[in-house]
């Protein structure tokens, strides 16, 4: 050493002072830790202060041996303080934060010991320091601080690597080197450094020291890594797991060659069995079923007490090979082992059923029921088995039905019912009910109603009969009602819905009862249920609409009518309705129209619609715009058509009501229309009055004065519409309607005393119109000529005008001409006997002039004979009264007419002889 390298005494004293000062600080902190109350949180100031002092101390190295010894003692003192705190509070029960502070103090203790690890006078200081780092690393590993754990394990490995392992004699020393390697390997595995982890395990083979416990520890770690790889269920992972487990198996077999104690032999053999089981599981994942069976055979040959998993492994292997009988034998063997864990046999059942499917449902049922009889089965296990048997019932099919049949038998077994009947099994009972309910619902959606009903019934076994569950029971009864309705077992469906209504009387129950009566075609019962719907607390108008649709679909029209009629009662309340009021009325009328006997009901609903129209407005009732016009036209046309139909059936009273409603509907204005269809209003009013008069004649019951005036007011409305037209009034309606209007007005005005001039003016106006028809005039003339309200003036005018019109055409209708002449003769005879008879004579002369030039028979012969005979006979009265000239005039007219009538030769001869004798007599006188 050079002179300048030798520190001066002052510098040595300064270093010694610093060493002592820092050691004192560390010791003070340790004292505080020793005084700390166990179970309370460790403040982070302990580790912070210690770490600061340690860092300062580290900067002053190297240390004299005395300082190293002092540091060694402080390290052990701190370590022991941590141990005391852990033992008092319990590391396992402490909070994570407290565990981390504890690990930091342990870390300081290990680092402190490392500073003095080469102290002289203490045996194996490096080994003891490595032990501190190893134990601290385990704590960090438990806290999942893998980087800190790896640091500690690496420190321990470095310290042990400097030690000659051939000098290890104690078991703990031999064991520590292996433990550090395994712990370091585990830490590397946790951070996904698998290559390092496996390399460290391989390195550990060199430090087994022919100790059986070491072989077991290393083999067990290989197995743990293999299990971890196997759990990932990856192809590459399974291959790696197989290699690791084979290494574990090899180590166990090597360990048996050096074992000395019996308990070590048993431990290694147990590990071999465990490894073989996992090897079998690995082969199973690789679909190497033969290898699985070989592993199982080795295990069964070597073990007295068979592990429960062997049957499961063998069963799965046989399933993979497609040998279902052997698989079923293995599954049934599970039942014989009373000590088998529940999770194992449940898994076996699930695996078997997953492969075999519905074909194995019966076997699963037998196994499960056998287990119920031999060992304790939890409610959870029962639910898992039932869930596996249920599978996925969506879509239906034969397999789903077979599964459902087995489920039905299982859940209805008394043993399972007893298992889930206790108060502590309420959660499982609810789960079972939900499982069965969902299964039944899927079958219901698949239209397999019989299976659905069966499972729904079984689900009811898991619903308690208490008050809290009454709504759930009612729901079950309702859905069962639906199932049996779909199966057309209506009586049974009715039983279920009656039970549901007892438990929970609501809208759904009432509606289902309605549907049952509907399908039974019991209309009265269905109508009763419809009428009961509004009384339900949860009533909504949509159900009445739905009831109407259901009734229409079943062709139960009375029920549909009752439903729609009931809906209409709610529109005046202002409630929100599923459809517009006019649509309901339209639907109702359409349904009623399908039966020809419903005219009165149609009229009733039409009047009801008109009343609502009057109460609201055309736009509110029919709607706005084009939609409103279409709705208005529909009601107008249907009222008109109903009026035509009932009129043709001679139901004139109803006919009049329909036409009056038609006039109201046609007259409704939509949007900016100034008026409705006034032409159709006019026609409807005319037809209304016509029907009133026709009904009077049919009933032979004369209209009262007020009724006559009301009818006249309706005609006056029509007349105003005719006169308000910018063109000739006859141009806006057809001739027939104009005639009906004229005829009705004449008829009604004839009943009033002071309307004669109005009648004549009305007829003349009609006669002068372009659309006047001779037949219409003839009808008016005939009607005016007879009855209590006859008017000969109008009758003569109408008949005369009609005659003129008929004769003006190229080919007159001589039948009608003859009829008019007869009527004119009769009228003029009745009203002209006591006055001048020239008008009557002129009528006969007109008839004669008409017949002149006609072909034989062209003029009706009988009418011609009548004219000839009546003209001749008219001479009788003048003869008796001595008016000889007048008598001769009538005789001559009769003779002239007779000459134009074929077949009256004999009469003519007699007439001529009589006239000749009459003239002689006159001349002789």
From TrEMBL:
Keyword Methyltransferase: no
InterPro entries: Spo22/ZIP4 (IPR039057), Spo22/ZIP4/TEX11 (IPR013940), TPR-like_helical_dom_sf (IPR011990), TPR_rpt (IPR019734)
SMART domains on file: TPR
Pfam families, A to Z: SPO22
Gene3D superfamilies, per the entry: Tetratricopeptide repeat domain
Alphabetical list of SUPFAM superfamilies matching this protein: TPR-like
UniProt entry keywords in alphabetical sequence: Meiosis
Name of the protein in its database record: Protein ZIP4 homolog
Upper classification of the organism: Eukaryota, Viridiplantae, Streptophyta, Embryophyta, Tracheophyta
